[in-house]
Structures are given as structure tokens and as C-alpha cells.
What does this fold into?
Amino acid sequence: MALITIFTSPKPFTDPHINEIQRNAILSWIALGDEVEVLLLGDEEGLGEFAAEFGIRQIKDIKCNELGTPLVSSLFDTARENSNTELLAYVNADIILLPDFISTSKEMLRQQEKFLLVGQRYDLDITEELNFDGNWKKMIEDELKGGGRLHPPSGSDYFIYTRNVYLKVPDFTIGRAGWDNWFIYHAVTQPWMAIDVTGSITVVHQNHDYSHLPGKKPHYDQPETFENIKLADGRKHMYFLYDVDQRIINLKISKKKYDLNRVLRAIERLIYPSGVDPKGFRWRITLWLIRFRNKMASRK
It folds into this structure.
């Protein structure tokens, strides 16, 4: 019986590289075994053919905005209504998952009734279709050792959650910035746990350009991103992984310690209650501290 339903809203499969990395990602989910059910949402070009090729369930009828971009609320509602697993997971369609995605989720479900699991990803250049027969896990791990880079703790490319949370989600647009930050904010401000699983769950983002977006601009520079921020009630609800208080060590939940970045982030939220300082408060203070430390060291 499946433990978790992984759902996503892929881009069109028309661009050769996007086609390649989306196939890699979704096939890695299937390779996790019978505890995973995959649900593909939307009707982008090439999606139906891909779903039919691998026998993956597709639901075409997803609500979109006036530009045709799927709404996050519709994706999450559709996934809940068309699944019966204890856990749900939204995962971006360019993310490769490894078996620790299942083992960690299963252990957290044993410990908690309600939660959100989020974490950082590894960025990796992959330029070919991968083979998920044999010891594919070691193949990915070897690739990461050779060229993987841990992405900064900004938003998240995946959300693992129990089906009794996120029952009402604003009409954010998928694939644009802001909505993932609101998801972190929402979890942090609830009585149930938001848990940073960086280090316990390895997810691999396959690098790509932004040619699929209007004007070929990054997602954070799109009008739909500004609408997402408005729906989130402003930048004050743009939370990051720094704002998540819990983490996992040896499959046990523990309180995060306050390192420099978390302290600066807390100060940033205090000084700029309306949102994140666009001039980069945290990084300016960090630079000042480094210069001050170097100056003191030079006097010794």
C-alpha cells in the first residue's frame, strides 16, 4: 500500500532539455517503489504521452489564472481529493529524489500526527537521460560528489505534509516565487511542526535556464510573482528555511541552534516587520562582522 502521493505540475515537454530533466525526475520517484503513488496534474503539451508511456495517473482539469498558469490551490485540492495516502508531497518536476525521501517521511509520520517537511536542495548539471535500473542511487550520489552544490536556504522545491494540514491554500500561481515562502510561513506559525530535513533528505535539482518563462526572466522577476506576494499578504510572510525552528538529527526531531545567519534573520524580521529588506540586511551585517573581525585580528 502506498505511503505517500507525490504530485506535480510539469512544464510542457517540448523543450529537449526540459523534457529530459522532467523524465529523469519523475522516473526517479517511480523508482522509489510501491510506497509511492505519482500524480501528474495538468495538460501541458507532451504530458499525456509521457503519462501513458509509463502508466502514471494524470488529471487534466486544473484551474489556472488568466495567463494559463496552474493555481497552487487547485493542485493541492486535486491531489488531496484524488488520493488516500497518509502523506502528500508536492515536488517540482525537475527534482530527483533518493530513497531517504521515503525512509525519513515514514519515521516522521511515526513520531508526529501533523507536520511539514522542507529542506535545501543540491544543484547539479545533468545533460542526459538517466537509467534507473540497477544501483542508480550510487550513480546520483557519485554525481553529487563530483559537481553538486547545496542551494542557499531560501524557499523549497518540495513539501511533504500530512493530509490534515494545508486544507485551504491561496490562489498562488505555480512556478513563480513567493508561494513556497508562504508555505513555510504558514507551517511555522501553526501549532503543528515545520521541520527542516536538510541533511536527512537528499533532493537533486537539475539545472536549467528560464527560457520557458515570459521574457526568459527568472521566476522572481515575473508579474505573477508580485501577485503571489500580494496573495501572501506581503513580504512579511516570505519565510525561509532560516525561520524553521526544528530539524532532524539521526531521525530525531531537535531544536535548531541559533547560528549567525539565524540570528541575523531574526533581527531582520524585527527591524523590517513589513518584509525582507530588499538591500540585503543579513548579508551587509555579515560583511561588516567579517571586516571587523579581520581588523581586530590585524591589530594583534
Remarks:
- Residues 4-254 form a domain with the Spore Coat Polysaccharide Biosynthesis Protein SpsA; Chain A fold (CATH 3.90.550.10).
- The chain has a mean pLDDT of 88.
